[in-house]
């Protein structure tokens, strides 16, 4: 019998950081709404996460499509579910020099990383404000703090996510029971690089240097529950961002170019 009354909604919940976050919420007795594009994957994850005391509701949505993002919120309302925690985890990148990459794919990524996140935040935040209760976790990245040659659009979208999260957090300071937290991982061992066609990048050749998505999720979960504004996951990433803050932007961009260009690029 489902005993929990608390609901968390997680986008991109079928793998990687999103799945690891879902496991943490389930462990803490949150009912889950898990969102993804693949019905079979969602069903498998729902079966993996469900237990006697929590409900796991899979909702199939293509978050590249703004109409489907709005319909996700409408379905939650139609079911009369109160979402206490919103996790905007879904996101993708595309690899390559901007002059060569597919503009339609990049526009789709902007729709997913920026538009979908903004729509869901707006919709669920307005409900949270009515009851003065709720938490939002937005997946930013250390990419939000540095220019990213070979991933120019992705880095740009993550800069938006961080800036947006910090701005609305300040706007909400009078709502003491509502918090907005940005999670800023570095390169993590997920399917992100496959989807971005990025496996030739120098940045992902050393698999041992990639963060464990379970560790990233734990950092994000703890920061969210503590009501923190943001968290950089991993000591190495903290050092990189601290150094980039005191380095000229043009130098940082050059260093990132060297890190991210293909292995065989002269």
What number of structural domains do the residues give?
1
Q: Could you give the distance between the termini?
A: 61 Å
Write the CATH homologous superfamily.
NAD(P)-binding Rossmann-like Domain
* CATH architecture term: 3-Layer(aba) Sandwich
* Strands, total number: 7
Poorly predicted residue ranges: none
Strand residues, percent: 5-15%
- Describe the sheet with the most strands: 7 strands, parallel
Helix/strand/pairing class, anyone?
alpha/beta
Globular, elongated, flat, extended or rod-shaped: what is the shape?
Answer: globular
Order the strands across the largest sheet as they lie in space: 3-2-1-4-5-6-7
Quickly name the level 1 CATH class. Alpha Beta
Secondary-structure element series = EHEHEHEHEHEHHEHH
Total number of helices = 9
CATH fold-level name: Rossmann fold
- Percentage of residues in helical conformation: 40-55%
Radius of gyration, in angstroms, nearest whole number: 18 Å
Mean pLDDT across residues: 89
Could you give the topology of this structure?
Layout: E1 7-11, H1 16-27, E2 31-36, H2 39-49, E3 56-60, H3 66-78, E4 85-88, H4 103-131, E5 134-139, H5 152-171, E6 178-184, H6 192-195, H7 213-225, E7 230-232, H8 235-245, H9 249-260
Parallel strand pairs: 1-2, 1-4, 2-3, 4-5, 5-6, 6-7
Helix pairs in contact: 1-7, 3-4, 4-5
GO molecular function: oxidoreductase activity
Pfam families: adh_short
GO cellular component, one term: membrane
